[in-house]
Amino acid sequence: MARIRKFVSYRRIERPYTRISKYKEKSFVRANPNIKVVAFETGTPQKKFKYTLKLISKDDLQIRDNALESAKQTSNRLLEKSIGTSAYHLKIKPYPHHILRENPIAAGAGADRFSTGMQKSFGKPIGAAAQVRRGQTVFQVSVNKANLELAKTALTRASKKLPCSYTIQMTENK
To answer: CB under 8 Å to 152, separation ≥6 — which residues?
Structure first.
């Protein structure tokens, strides 16, 4: 299988494009690729925790689903090994609805025989991304006071796996 394209080509937020055609069967994106995020919530969701930390985006951008899963695994592993699953609740807030498409352009000898160029450039679905706006929460961790520093470290590790830069905001639950 080919490597995935660098995300710099998909980072900018664009309007989700739906093809409008006089032929009904060509008026939508046919295939929905599988979303790579396994679970959007980990830990113990029912328990009430004293503090909530949020990872907040500083820019408008798209985050690919494999980046969200990678960031979740990194922070979840740290929290699970250190304090156990009953002492925190980690949640991914945005859902990767936006379908990313790619119009493969062949290069090299004989490429003109099977490449359409920009003639039919709608592209095939290759993945999914979540559209995140400035000030929107990407990750949310709820913990008690004893595990606050560990939760900050977990969110910092998650931010390293995601494009753009983020701030960590802490709120006290009443």
So the answer is: 53, 168, 170
